[in-house]
Write the C-alpha cells for this entry.
Amino acid sequence: MKRNSIICTLAFAFLSAGSACSFTQQKPADKTEETPDTEQRETPKVYMFKEISPENLVKIYEALGRKATGRVAVKISTGEPGGHNFLQPTLIKDLVQAVKGTIVECNTAYGGRRADTETHRKAAADHGFMAIADVDIMDAEGETELPLTGGRHLSRDIVGSHYPDYDFTIILSHFKGHAMGGFGGAIKNMSIGIASANGKAYIHTAGKVADPGQLWQNLPEQDVFLESMAEAAKAVADHCGNNILYISVANNLSVDCDCDASPEDPAMGDIGILASLDPVALDKACTDLVRDSEDHGKIHLIERIDSRHGMHTLDYAEKLGMGSQRYELVRLD
C-alpha cells in the first residue's frame, strides 16, 4: 500500500475515535426551522446524460443556461500519481477549451507527490492536463482569504492567492467515494479543492490550525469535519454568486478518492454525467443514483458513504442555505 493510502487510513481512524456520532444510513433531511424554506423557491434541476462522452459534457454545460464568461477557472482534481480514476483529459478537453478555461488546483496538505508546486505541475503534465489547457496551481505564490458568514467552526476560507483573479468557476468533479468524507463531489471539490495547502489543514481541523504539519494531531469529531467542509464551500459559493456552476462525472466509482495513490478498483459500473446550478442538489442526485442502482457492487460505495456519515455534509450545507436536497432530475438521453 502506498504512503498516502496509509495516511488516509490512519487519519480516518483518528477521526472515528474522536467522533461521538453514530454512522448510519441517512434519510433526506426533514424540513426544520433551521432549514431554508426551499418550498418557496423553484425546485433546482439536475440534468443528466447516462452516456459519458466529451460531446455530452459540453451539452450538459449548455443545458444549464449559464454561460461561463471572462477568465474561467475549471476546478478538477489532477489526481495523485499512482492513481488512475481521475477525469481523463480526453474527456474534459472539449469543455475546457469551449469556455477558454484554465485548469486550477491547489497543493495538498497530506504529503504525496502534489504537496509542492513543482511536483504538482509535474503530476498535471504526466496526467495529460497541460497538453489541453493552462494549469494554475493557485497557491504557488501564497494564499488569500474569503469571508465566511454563518459558520459554526470556520471564521474564513483560506484559498490559493490566484483564485480571486478568476471571473467564473466551473466545479468539474469526479464523483466517487472518499476515505474521510464518505464521498467526494461538488461540495468537496469546491471546499478542500480550492483551499490552499494551509487552508486544507484549516478545514480538516475545523479551524484549529492552518498548518499541514499539525493536521493529523488536531482532527475533530467526524460531523464537525463534514460541517467545516460545507462551510468552506459556502465561502466559495458566496464569493462567486451566479458566476459558478457544477458538473459531476459519476464514473470509475471507487470507494477511494483521486487523492489516493493506490485506490480500490471500482466495484460498480458508471452512472453518467450530472450538472446543476445547485451543488447540494447535484451531490444528492449522485448519491441517490448510487443507492437506486441495480448494480450489486453499489454496496461497497454505500457502505463507504454511510460509515463516514457522508450525508451529513448535505444536511448541513442545506441548513447553511447553499441549496436543496429536493430536486428535479432531467434526463437528456
Q: What stands out?
A: The chain has one domain: 42-331.
